[in-house]
## 1
Amino acid sequence: MQYYHARRNLDFSSSPSSSPLESLIYGVVSPDEQLDTKVQLRNRLNSGRLSNMPAGFPFRHVLDSRGSPHVVYDSYEFREELPFDSRCTGKLPAHVTFTTESADTSSSKRDYLTWNAYLPKLDYLPYSRGPPPKVPVAHVRVDKAVMDTVYGRYIERDPRIILRALSVSVELGLLVTITLQHFADCPGQFANVVYVGTANNGRRSVLFTAGSFGYR
């Protein structure tokens, strides 16, 4: 089963036209190296090869009094080291976080489960008092209403769904929202689960329709 499909809008083999950047920690960072860190992160997310990913990803599992695992929506963060061999540090840290958030829309207030991926900001600023600040490079959120459907169970059990959505977000530079489209002729019975991409200018488009799912 394929969990999403998104048309590739970025050519990762091409080099940006910007000039090299410089950081006191990492030295001169060429455009190719900047792009390479994003490609590395995208590939690891897409393949699921993250060495520090917590057990139970994309959530956390806790045991109840009977010893049965239950999903909890507690916030967490983990760090992944990316090779950066041309620098004295040898590695570049990427961070992945999970939080819950609320967002107001024109008609209602929605609650979301949110994952973000960050890379260090590499530029001319002298971050002499510590590591450079983190810059978000991927943003995925799931409408909590999706978790009430059968597809929500898939999200709980299969980490590839969120990992690959993060990979798409890195590649296309879009906020990826997994949400519902209800059927007008049978409300409350089934809903379409869709992946919506939102650009920085607010433009939205449906990247993929996962399918029609009943409620749990």
## 2
Amino acid sequence: MSSTTPPVDPRAPLPPAVVILGNDAQLAARPATPVQLAHACLAAGFRAAIPASWGDELVAAATLGVIESRSVRPVIHCACPHVARRMLAVGTELAANLVSLVAPPVAAAKYLRSHATEGIRVTYVGRCPAASDDSIDARLTPEELLAQLAERGIDLLDQPEVFESVIPPDRRRHYSLPGGLPAPEQLWNRTGLRVETLSGDDFTTDVAERVLSRADVLIDAALATGCVCSGAIRGAPAADARTIVASLEPPRSPTAVIEERGTPPMEVPIPIVARTVSDLAIVSPSRGLPASRVERELPPVLAILQPPTGATEAHPRRPRLTPPGSPVVAGPPQAASAASPPPPRRR
């Protein structure tokens, strides 16, 4: 007898639905508070509303652990696809410096699944491109969620501003800043590094100088690349993004908020990004370092962080650091010779 798959019973109960509310979703819900947004999600049928800070805490704790196990300096925080794309635009020259981790929404989803006693359906609300991960079942933009709540007659501003009858997920932070970056005091106490946050579209020179000098810093390029998990949304100054997100949150916790036992792995392989000849730019030795020291101790570094092709720069480029006459763009030998002007004729 041939076996057949039994039909799905439409009356079977669906798995509990939980929603992960991204930092950009909480910003989009203003003037409603994150607590009111969570209440609205519960009224819409979700079993639980998980704050983005859970994913941030998991990523920040994993970042500290990875840094403690490595000796390479500086370290580049890479928990955002936008950061990975810029850092690896033309190859893997910076791979040794990257701390490559899952994005905060994926970290939260994996954590929820690993601790669930039954099957769950995970919905993420936000614009993080990493939400296509298999750990997330459904994805909504903040605008789509707000529209669905409005269609159901759920007014955010009518929701309670506190939790009374249920114990909500803890929204405090201990290890993290928005986007999964370790808090400066946590980073310093455990690794002796300080955070250096990049700004502007053209941060190539800044990263190259830190790599050449082997600076004891954790490089943060999330805001400069438009990471929504860090609070970088349209119309808000990037420099104030994390401060704005933090203003919606309760005071920091003196102890860890997330149970770390049984936490799934957060590290991911270094992604491979397509490279093109036009992305290769030679960077000169760092300012402030003697040329002899650079030549003796440090190999040349390729600046692989150029903005995507066709992107416009919001800030003027810095003065070039290469000596006059040195090539800025490296290409095939035949292309370079074809583009060079012919020697002047003697008269």
## 3
Amino acid sequence: MGETELNQMDKFALAYAQSEKESYFSTLYEKVKPTIQKEAKERSLRYQIPASDFESVFSQELWRAARDFNGESHIMQRLSSFAKPKAASVVRYHYAKKRTPNRLVSLDKPVDAEGNTLKNALVSPSQFENDLIDELEIKKILEGFTKTHEHYGQIIKMLYHDCTFEEIASTVFGTSEYDARCRKGVQRAKECFKAYLQRVS
């Protein structure tokens, strides 16, 4: 998920919070929906719980996260913090139904083929949350690099957002062809960024 996409989600969330117009929330939901479905599917496969249960939780929490969104954080980060305890409750509910006559299922009992336990489900961060953290960290690094290397920073940002070499040539170098000058500029940008990462890591 790129910076532009995150910012678009924030824009629609803020517009919904300020106006309460359902059209803004509908647009926001359609943009977030693929991520919700991906997260629900991963949790469903891991814990053998219907994906629809998790989709329902994330959809409801998206509305809660958006209705008083103020733009001080990313809406996806806010959704993660809202949905995490509710998703854990879904897991607890389903595993409580699998109790034996005299005791609940042990938290240390494996719940999938990979040996994950119920304890993992309740306390471990999901891939969804890790992806968000990674995305925000990458954004921070790119912004820091661009402050000191504006020209190279623009190139690295475009590479990160999967822009084509032709798009880089046109936007950064003002030419329609990705020629030797462009290739050299991109290579220098990569080398400069690599050195920057070594300094800040």
